[in-house]
Amino acid sequence: MIEYELKGPLSQEQTRSRLTLSLKENKFPQAVIIDGLPGVGKKALAMELAKALTCTDSTQRPCGHCFYCKMVEDPGAVKQWLIPLESKEAKAKSASEVKEGSTAKTVDDYTQFYLEKLKENPYSINYLSKAAEISVDLVRSLKGRFGLKNNEIRCVIIAEADTMNESASNALLKILEEVPSNTYFILTTHSKEHLLQTIRSRCLSVHLNTLSSKEVKAIASQYTPEGISKEVLGLSLGSVGRAIYFAEILPKIQDLALEFLKESWLQNHSNLFFSLESADFKEASNAILFLELLGFLVNDLIRYISESPIRLSSLTLAFVEDLATLPSLEALSVALEAIHEASFKISTRRTGPLMVLQALSISIFDGYR
Ligand SMILES: [Zn+2]
Predict the structure, then answer these.
(1) Ligand 1 centre from 59 Cα, in Å?
(2) 74 C-alpha to center of ligand 1: Å?
């Protein structure tokens, strides 16, 4: 009798026991989708599953020390993963096409580069560039991995499966329609609804819950020398990846967020424009997370005025102390709406992030004035 145990935080126990049961009963589905907020540990769980499925220990799986368990930890095991790449990276040659002695980077080299980052921190929410996607060529490369007809169990983790474009999705669907025996696919995504319905219907779907503050703090602290402050914990929304991101970035952007609200409120735009230009908002994701911080601050000000408990205490109080007159509740709710709109504009990529932020600084309190 083989025992299975998947490691992970208590808040996600229910999902793990469901998976453990199907492993024990030898009924594990050949394709699984793990979905949940960015940074809650979908890839960490996928790696636990990959170990459990491929482990060769006769009593306890994953054992953590057999060849197959170790392989899951190895960034060089590129065949176990499908990772989104930028289009020029995905168009690079495959390892078999490169002549001996060539220094040209292959698709495997690029994949390994991202896997190194991922295995250092499987909770990271910014290990890829935003332009990365799973192309049809990457999906087709899966086929070549299943040539060997032996008893070895193969498991492929498809990270950020929602970045598959249409032709990639259709190519994956074809593979899922006839999954080779001894082969398992684990898809991870933060938005299941972006996957084809026909793909979803071929997979078992499991959802990964957000974590308790205590769990976020305990896990995120292992990856951040700065430690996890109360403010960072508030911004994390139960996601370890968000906590790690904000622990690093908050000291760099909190002053800008305060300046943004203050100067917009006082209508001093020229200095603010300059500060925004010097900050790094080339990546849309950075700008969206900055807007989230602004939204948190505005929400906190609303709470402060209505005498509810605030979440970003030091930041919010700094803002309150800095201004002679605070924006009214009405002005703040108008601002909140404008922030959401700006975030939407950036995510749909119609306008560049910097331009959206500059326009927002002029118009954030407009509906009110
Ligand atoms: Zn093992």
Answers:
(1) 10
(2) 13
Ligand 1 center to residue 55 CA distance, Å?
Answer: 4
User: Could you tell me the distance, in angstroms and rounded to a whole number, from the CA of residue 191 to the centre of ligand 1?
Assistant: 31
The string of DSSP letters for 135-178 reads -HHHHHTTGGGG---SS--EEEEETTGGGB-HHHHHHHHHHHHT
Helix, strand, coil percentages for the chain (3-state, nearest 5) = 55, 10, 35
Mean of the per-residue pLDDT values of the chain: 91
The rounded Å distance from CA 72 to ligand 1 centre is 10
Predicted TM-score of the model (pTM):
0.89
CA of 32 to the centre of ligand 1 (A): 21
**What tokens were used for 159?**
């990270």
CATH number for the segment(s) 3-209: 3.40.50.300
86-140 confidence digits (pLDDT tens): 988 888 877 777 777 777 789 999 999 999 999 999 999 988 877 899 999 999 9
